[in-house]
Amino acid sequence: MAPSGSADLVIVANRLPVDRVTLPDGSTEWRRSPGGLVSAIEPVMRANDGTWIGWPGGTETDLEPFEDEGLDLVPITLTQQEVEDFYEGFANATLWPLYHDVVAKPEFHREWWDAYVAVNRRFAEEAAAVAAKDATVWVHDYQLQLVPQMLRELRPDLRIGFYLHIPFPPAELFQQLPWRRQLLEGLLGADLVGFQLAGAAQNFVRLVRQRVGHKTHRDLVYLPDGRTVRAAAFPISIDAQGFEDLARSEEVSQRAKEIREAVGNPRRIFLGVDRLDYTKGIYARLRAYSELVVEGELNVEDAVFIQVATPSREQVEQYRILRDDIDRLVGRVNGDLGKIGRPVIHYLHSSYPPEEMAAFYRAADIMAVTPLRDGMNLVAKEYVACRFDNDGALVLSEFAGAAEELRQAWLVNPHDINGMKSAFLEAYRADDKEVTRRMKAMRKTVKQNDVAAWAESFLTELEAGRPSHGKSVRPPNRS
Ligand code: F6P
User: Fold this and answer.
1) For ligand 1, which residues put their CB under 6 angstroms from it?
2) Per-residue confidence band for 473, with pLDDT thresholds at 50, 70 and 90
3) Regarding the domain with residue range 7-236+452-464, which homologous superfamily does it belong to in the CATH classification?
């Protein structure tokens, strides 16, 4: 296929950076999707006049490439059947649980796989069509693991990077997949495969050696055609300064006060913020907290738990079951232990703009981030970025990628309810000096390794292996 496009940098991700929203009057508009990926990639996109290929979330078929706030966006259309088989099915009921330590049972269906192949091909063909000669294409996440190889077959001139935002499982779990070899070969179409943690990159290289039979040495895979693929860790981060600026603003300070007042100005506010996902450990966390209230270690006058749970993947059965379980648990706990005007748990099943999130982070004394498995967990980093007074305690799961960097958090095993209860109490009772010592250290880490540094290090590494005649991608301007 001859190069026909003009984009020197192409981002390929399951979602576009904007969602199509239908307004009450039936008209539609594009709204910036929240989330780390967008803020991570946007500065690089702007510096390079990039093009972003992704799914806008619905099943509309009338969408043409368009520009939004200076970004070139190319929508990919999915049929209703593809939404069910590719997105809800293979991506979120096969790969998602499998890659998260099988905390829910992955389902294997051949028709879901067929849809995954077909949709990945559509993304690859679109990328091949828009990329200029020798362009750089950066493919994101588990929904699109076949794209690198498909794209390389169409456009061998391209420099292709792939980044996995979620964990990559150990061989013992990965090899359950009937299509394990195809996925590994799909990823090997990239020149650089990035992971959150070094352990994930090692899992991948080991699997390639065992299952595909390629020679490997440390983080390199040697392909029979002479190409070399590198697998390495690039821990993702957030726009730390952006969050801090938001948290310092007058509006957010005021709103944080209002939130504290609205929940009765208790001595301590505990906070959980998650997509409503079974990997996030919300159920066990709320159980641990409520047991402390039953046992009289905490009481509803002094402490409250605010749990924000953002609706997610609501058509997938496991997510519906989880929602019912949490609804029941919160109802029971508040019914049994709450008092008039003093519920044990304030449960908010809703999503909020960044300003409101920053206000929650400022209002909370103890942040509980206790996933059973998580690639990174940016909420933990957002909380730290917002605590510019160096106060606030973070209780963090050992099984979140963020635990490798935020060593000064109260680290917990989220399967160990008693351990979690002890950590909550320790964080609750910790003196200011201890809290400040820990938060100061974590803030240094988050500020140094922000999202611009992440994007820059991935792209610099990707370009480093490029044959000298090629083009190169400009890193974003760092503030
Ligand atoms: O980080 C994992 C991820 O699936 C991202 O790819 C995605 O943007 C986010 O979680 C939200 O999930 P979804 O796109 O399924 O709503």
Assistant:
1) 14-15, 35, 37, 141, 165-166, 312-313
2) confident
3) Glycogen Phosphorylase B; (3.40.50.2000)
